[in-house]
Amino acid sequence: MKLDYLFEEKKKQVLSFEIFPPKHGAALKNIDETLEILSSLHPDFISITFGAGGSAVNNKTIELAKKIKETYHIEPVVHLTCLNYTKEEITGMLNEMKEAGIYNLLALRGDRNPDIEPKKEFHYASDLIRFIRQQGDDFHICAACYPETHPAAESRAADLRHLREKVECGATHLLSQLFFDNDTFYRFLEDAAIAGIDAPIEAGIMPVTNKAQIERMATMCGASLPEKYKRIMQKYEDNKDALLDAGLAYAINQIVDLLASGVDGIHLYTMNNPTVARRICDGVRNLI
């Protein structure tokens, strides 16, 4: 089932989770505990990340999506990258998804892999979106957006132009990269509206559970850390349990404010940690 109805009906704000396939060589059954808990929280969909290259990773992503759909009866969204693939390879993956009854994807350029030479048939996510739409209207296509501007963008204005191009090419739903300051996200929403971007935008939230991990992720994504957030990490970085409690409280406060402000939805980056997802959902259970 395509996810278009979520925003067409506009009956409620959307809740979704992101997970990643088990590491190379790990059995898919090892993720069952995570999926059992996540499915009990009744998300509108679960997205599955996609590796930078290699058919084994691709197949595991789609295999996990099939498991989510068939076993847990939740719509999966497959991350689909394009930098390291040809049009023929992308077509093959799209056909595999359709054969499995999976019609929702997140179109991404993908990270550069120093061990893999880009195929040069797709340079940007907008190229992938355009190619998929040229094949027909089979898929609900999500695209990524960056509240604090993509790290590789020439400017904020240029980043917004590229984002509008994704929507004009056929993306109907946007998932934001993580951020830690809601005012930053609200300014982004205003700028996106001024730029003529009218697709629904889910707010991406990642709870801090590890100081080094969150600093690394923030650097990769170009997300800034507010002073109050830094104080939390500095205060509790040597106390794992305290840092978890403080990080979850911060994320819940973010989500409460976002929902009260009428955002289209919350996309929770779970890092495959079902305990974190459950505690956050318990904190906002009656709000969504």
Primary descriptors:
288 residues, alpha/beta, TIM Barrel, 8-stranded parallel barrel, 11 helices, 8 strands
What report would you give on this structure?
It is a single chain. By secondary structure, this protein is of the alpha/beta class. The chain has a single domain, classed as TIM Barrel (Alpha-Beta Barrel), CATH 3.20.20. Helices cover 47% and strands 15% of the residues. It contains eleven helices and eight strands. It has helices spanning 4-9, 32-40, 55-72, 87-99, 125-134, 156-169, 182-194, 211-221, 227-236, 240-260, 274-283; strands at residues 14-19, 45-48, 76-81, 104-108, 140-145, 173-178, 201-205, 265-269. The protein has an eight-stranded parallel beta barrel with strand order 1-2-3-4-5-6-7-8, surrounded by four helices. β6, α7 and β7 (201-205) form a beta-alpha-beta unit. α2 (32-40) packs parallel to α11, α5 (125-134) runs parallel beside α6 (156-169) and α9 (227-236) runs antiparallel to α10. The radius of gyration is 18 Å and the shape is globular. Residues 52-56 have low confidence and may be disordered.
Q: What topology does this entry show?
A:
Layout lengths: L3 H6 L4 E6 L12 H9 L4 E4 L6 H18 L3 E6 L5 H13 L4 E5 L16 H10 L5 E6 L10 H14 L3 E6 L3 H13 L6 E5 L5 H11 L5 H10 L3 H21 L4 E5 L4 H10 L5
Parallel strand pairs: 1-2, 1-8, 2-3, 3-4, 4-5, 5-6, 6-7, 7-8
